[in-house]
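Hi everyone,

Forwarding the result from last night's run.
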Amino acid sequence: MNHVVNEGGQVDLFNEPFQLDKKKVDLAIESALLKIDQNIEVFTYKFPGTFTRDNNYYDRRSIDQNPTKERFNDGENFDWTTSFWTGMLWLAYELTGDKKYKKTAEIQVNSFIERIEEKLDVDTHDLGFLYSLSCVPGYKLTASERGKESAVKAANHLMTRYFERAEIIQAHGDLADPKLRGRMIIDCLMNLPLLYWATDVTGDKKYAEVAYKHAAKTLEYSIRPDASTYHTYYFNTETGEAKYGETLQGFSDDSCWSRGQAWGIYGFLLSYSYCKDKRFLEAGQKLAHYFLNRSPKDLVVYWDLIFNEDSNEEKDSSASAIAVCGLIELTENLSDIDSKQYYSHAYQRILNSLIDHYSTINNPNSNALLLHGTYFKKQNQGVNEASLYGDYYYLEALTRLKLNWQKYW
């Protein structure tokens, strides 16, 4: 695959060798751990919000929750992003061996065990996010049988959202709601590892078969000919007919939402790591090129890839952090030396920019890790703020450079 010049006219730096300084990585990790230490004091038995307000996390607010039958108190375990805080705790434990992180993570895991047992706000495909970063690492790192059992329960509940004729997992909401029925979003690729893992630990192939079919359907319909992606695609669940693609969080139905493209890069590569279908590897690589070719001067993308430096639009640092993790995964799965070096230069340059210009290393007034993200521009939510998932993927990327890390995904 050719490594082309950035479409905005910037010289393609990714062909030029670059090695991220190990001391800089260590300092970035040290800074991140200080922020986590600060947050443990507040968020041991409760959860921070999905995104910051004025660059600081406060208790998760029930008023921000998408409408569900359940009602929660502020700080409780609801919505799709709570596990990113728990995942950071597990990463901190792996990076340091300090049992305070393990102890806090285990307290959090108890909340996830209760959540699936009581079926609290679980009518979503995001059970993969929720349990791959809480109970799964709890089992992998501490051999917690309760964690394992709860993650398998979550996988079983996720399976109830699968439509056999359409071969997709519905994203959110009531499966009978005609406005939501048959709605697949590209984010779901990141939820599939929970199902692959469930097959690994139970020996039951049904989980991996559903995950594979959903990934294959995403491959067939969510990627446009130019390797950009739809955020959303609809299917007729009775006939299996593919209907149309659109966006929810991107700029327009024919633009390319940056975070969705990043989910696609990492998500397809994670499916490849389990099933070794080369189509998923090739898809991740194509999506990565579309993403990289729209890198602005500082290499951190705007919230939709349609925008450039002249747009005056906000960045989404979280999309670049997710993409870095995907590019690391891509590098590890390629055999061609030139391609491996290209993507290695790319992710190290992007991460270097995130550390220098977007992290809170020199910002003592924020309890976040990575600033200047965009959660949902159209609804003016979390615009130019930090987010739990942005912080998590930033720390995951640093961890992957520091340790021989075994993925939670």
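The chain is about 50% helix and 5% strand.

Cheers,
N.
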